[in-house]
Amino acid sequence: xxYIVNTAQYLPAKEISNSELTQFPPKxxxxxxxxxxxxxxxxxTDECTSDIGALAVKQLLKKTGMDPSxxxxxxxxxxxxxxxxxxxxxRIQEICGLKNAFCFDLNSVCSGGIYGLxxxxxxxxxxxxxxxxxxxxxxxxxxNPKDIATYPYFGDGAAAVLVSGHGLYELKxxxxxxxxxxxxxxxxxxxxxxxxxxxxKKERDYYFSMDGQSVYxxxxxxxxxxxxxxxxxxxxxxxxxxxxxxxxxxIKEIARRTNIPEEIFFIxxxxxxxxxxxxxxxxxxxxxxxxxxxxxxxxxxxAFGGGLSWAGCYLKKENHRE
Length: 322
Description:
- This protein is an alpha/beta fold.
- The protein is built from eight helices and 14 strands.
- Strands 5-4-6-7-1-8-14-13-11-12 form a ten-stranded mixed sheet, sandwiched between helices.
- Helix 2 packs across helix 3 (88-96).
């Protein structure tokens, strides 16, 4: 069996409020909180994705008391890597001194954190002892600062999770899904082999883009289905539900569709905006550090993002801790 031992996070120090987005007219700035529940977000200054990922991993090692040499594998979930190659995970390994770990990246966009937990769980069941999943995103470098449809709604951040054969919460059930027919709904068109730099004619192709209405419909449908499926498969009702923190209205709609009280859902989107693949794990860390976590035994995670991809996880508190 695989367990979450502990979690940690790192958010850049630079906090940007809606009122500071002066490139947009005041009437549009007022809509950001109304449309998505977002008040502030964090942006890096001179840091890259591996920098903030490494800071989250270092914090995790400190919290758990683990020696870096005791980590056997490092999985970095990111859709904003340092470079196309090598894997961002390798620089995090070097910064943190994880000399005995094998390292790799995965990209499932906003579902990446849960995808990482699934792979870590499989590695533990295959005999690996200690796996770190770090989800790190620097979307401020991928967004067009003049695009009102995307720029205000994303932020930067990282979170790390230690997975082992014993711990606080058992990874009871992890579900992964993809639908490649929606691969163009969320994308950065340029920079890869499909549209390499010499072929780019429009600067905007280097920036993140998405079809907002399609994403909203997809997130509400799949987020609701994930929660219902986890409950049915495991014959349990969640004490706490942590979804991808993309938009407060999406979370409210998922609550309505599932007939689950909104107060069951953990929400921190107002502080950090959408941190993509790091979103669910940052929220999980903040939840586990809250007093509520001491009272609740069954936690569902649900994420949805580019690919299209979606993923769910049931965490059961371990009542007989060592």
